[in-house]
């Protein structure tokens, strides 16, 4: 499937989100790795009506969790699309402080909650440029709108 990946402004937090646009089908997937917001527009088939229809869904973001290890293995990155409980929050914070914590690259790892327009760092380090809004980020980095194109 042909798609264009580009950086766009996140509708929720106004920071930089990644959009994957399938121009042949007019389908879109948007994910924000700042606040966790997720949006998709898909073409679905209605069996009863025997016709295609457009389905839009969105999930509010509650934050992002990224754990990177010192050994260079692939880290885990999760966006939070449901509000997490206090217990879950504790668990996630502990994952940074476990006895294996010396394996965790705290400079590259982070656990950030998003709530009502505010970000709170609970563990690790804010990634470089995390605080930039999309407009600020764009003025510094983004000269070419599309990052890559796949056929
Ligand atoms: Zn966002």
Question: Which key phrases capture this entry?
Answer:
single chain, 151 residues, mainly beta, 2 domains, six-stranded antiparallel β-sheet, four-stranded antiparallel β-sheet, 2 helices, binds zinc ion
If helices are DSSP runs of H or I spanning 4 or more residues, what is the number of helices?
2
Q: Could you give the count of β-strands?
A: 10
Q: Level of helix content?
A: 10-25%
In percent terms, what proportion of residues is strand?
35-45%
Task: Give the overall silhouette.
Answer: globular
| Class by alpha and beta content | mainly beta
Please give the radius of gyration in angstroms. Answer: 18 Å
Q: Order of SSEs, N→C?
A: EEEEEEEHEEHE
How would you characterize the largest beta sheet?
6 strands, antiparallel
Which compounds are bound in this model?
zinc ion
Distance between the termini: 6 Å
Report the uncertain regions: none
> Mean of the pLDDT scores?
90
Q: How many structural domains are formed by the residues?
A: 2
Strand order of the largest sheet: 5-4-3-2-1-10
Task: Please characterize this protein's 3D structure.
Helices cover 13% and strands 43% of the residues. With 151 residues, the chain is mainly beta. The chain has 2 domains: 3-60; 63-124, no CATH class. The chain starts with a strand and ends with a strand. The mean pLDDT is 90. The site of zinc ion (ZN) has 10 residues, from loops. Residues 10, 12-13, 15, 17, 32, 34-35, 37, 61 line the site of zinc ion (ZN).
């Amino acid at each position: 499937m042909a798609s264009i990946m580009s950086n766009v402004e996140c509708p929720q937090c106004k920071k930089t989100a990644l959009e994957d646009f399938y121009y042949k089908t007019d389908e879109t997937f948007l994910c924000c790795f700042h606040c966790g917001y997720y949006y998709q527009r898909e073409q679905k088939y209605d069996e009863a009506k025997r016709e295609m229809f457009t389905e839009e869904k969105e999930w509010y973001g509650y934050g992002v969790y990224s754990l990177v290890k010192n050994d260079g293995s692939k880290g885990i990155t999760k966006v939070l699309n449901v509000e997490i409980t206090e217990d879950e929050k504790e668990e996630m914070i502990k994952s940074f402080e476990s006895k294996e914590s010396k394996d965790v690259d705290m400079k590259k790892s982070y656990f950030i909650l998003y709530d009502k327009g505010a970000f709170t760092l609970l563990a690790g380090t804010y990634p470089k440029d995390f605080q930039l809004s999309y407009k600020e980020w764009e003025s510094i980095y983004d000269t070419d709108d599309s990052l890559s194109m796949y056929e």
